[in-house]
Amino acid sequence: MTNPDSMIRATRILRREHLSGGEIVDRVVLDSGERHRRRVAMRGAGGLGFLLDLPEAAVLEDGDALVLEDGRLVWVEAAPERLLEIRAASDHALKRLIWHIGNRHIPAEIGAEAFWIADDHVLADMVRGLGGTAEPVERPFRPEGGAYSGGHAHAHGHDHPHGRHHHHHADG
């Protein structure tokens, strides 16, 4: 590897919703751990070496681009990872499984009807013992709060409590 100080730097993230045109010169394929970074030397699939050098640690999402100092873009792709897709017979049963897994403080991606964790046969057995299903799948992993708890990860979709509106009493 060349000396990081002589490498071109990528100093900001262009989120996928703002990606319009721009010269994409390479792509990096990163797993969930590698997508939460502040400063690290990276090498694109096409061989471009560069230094990711962000002001603070951030989570790179599938489809984002890294902006190089000269304005060129490097596309970010989420690598498929070996995960367990966990499902249950009912919404309540799924919530119980999430609670049991949640007590172990491992990264999890929570969907509407399933959730995903890194493939782990001990947890798969536990889930099955609790009446759920755990199927190995290969897909990008987007754990809640990024790969690490704490830090500046942006959680997706905060649950705002519904139906707690302030009632304005009309004066007669």
UniProtKB/TrEMBL annotation:
Its main location: cytoplasm. Keywords: Chaperone, Cytoplasm, Nickel. Coiled coil: none annotated. Residues 134-172 are annotated as: Disordered. One of its GO terms (molecular function) is unfolded protein binding. Residues 153-172 have a biased composition (Basic residues). Pfam families: UreE_C, UreE_N. SMART domains: UreE_N (SM00988). It is found in: Cytoplasm. GO terms for biological process: protein folding; protein-containing complex assembly; urea metabolic process. Residues 9-74 form the UreE urease accessory N-terminal domain. GO terms for cellular component: cytoplasm. Belongs to the UreE family. Involved in urease metallocenter assembly. Binds nickel. Probably functions as a nickel donor during metallocenter assembly. This is Urease accessory protein UreE. The lineage of its organism: Bacteria, Pseudomonadati, Pseudomonadota, Alphaproteobacteria, Hyphomicrobiales.
